[in-house]
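JOB MANIFEST
job_type = single_chain_structure
chain_count = 1
residues = 147
[input]
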Amino acid sequence: MIVAQREYNYEYPPYTSERREPVKKAKKNTKLKNLILVVFISSLSILVVYRYAVIYQRSIALDKMERQIQYTDNLNQQLKAQIASLTNPARIEEIAKVKLGMQLAEKDQIVYINVGETHKIAEDKKVEEKSQEKSNFFMRLLGVFNR
């Protein structure tokens, strides 16, 4: 009996001395890190969107205020023009003559009163009284310190 020799071809990977870490622990850490990263990124994106929403609301409010200011300025200009037309001296004189039946005063109807000097004398007396009151106060105060 002839026995045939068989050729066996075994290929082994090269031997390394590195130890492998348990796979389960590495997966838990990476899953937790990924979860934290997703939560962080989503919270940042929500914060940015909220910020832009607030900016948009403030922009709308600002536009509304600017339109209101413009309307008020236009109304103010119209009222100033109306006041100018109503306070025209010629118009007032015409209304006084036509509607109210008034007339200009004649020379014998005008009476002049001179009140300037007597009023000034009364004011001077008040000022003197106040200055005397102040000087009396200071004199009393100095009298207390002289004792």
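[summary]
The helical segments are 23-86, 89-98, 116-146.
The CA atoms of residues 11 and 17 lie 18 Å apart.
exit_status = 0
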